[in-house]
Design goal:
The protein is of the alpha+beta class and about 90 residues long. The protein has one domain. The chain is built from two helices and three strands. It has a three-stranded antiparallel beta sheet with strand order 2-1-3. Strand 1 (about 5-10) and strand 2 form a beta hairpin. It is globular, with a radius of gyration of 13 Å.
Length: about 90
């Protein structure tokens, strides 16, 4: 079975604009240029929901810490094993 590839999408909720797709979470965080920019996980080559839904795991790096529950869910969905027990360090941009 092919391992699912996790990517990180940057979206500016204030302007409704796309900011990019990154394999590296730190690059996605660095692409967040305002408080309205958020990072959301996605699985490469997987179709998302067609209806409007809350984006599980979407967060605003300049304003909040990434929730541990989100990390564990993403880890499992990407085929990872074990537990994620803490939020990894992230760089909050000023």
């Amino acid at each position: 079975m092919k391992m699912k590839k996790e990517v990180f999408v940057v979206w500016d909720v204030h302007q409704g604009s796309f900011g990019g797709v990154f394999e590296d979470k730190e690059l996605a965080i660095a692409a967040c240029y305002s408080d309205g920019c958020g990072v959301g996980p996605a699985i490469l080559n997987e179709v998302g929901p067609k209806e409007e839904v809350d984006w599980p795991g979407f967060w605003f790096p300049r304003m909040e810490e990434e929730p541990v529950e989100t990390l564990q869910k993403i880890h499992r969905e990407a085929g990872g094993e074990g537990m994620v027990t803490e939020t990894p360090p992230s760089t909050l941009l000023c």
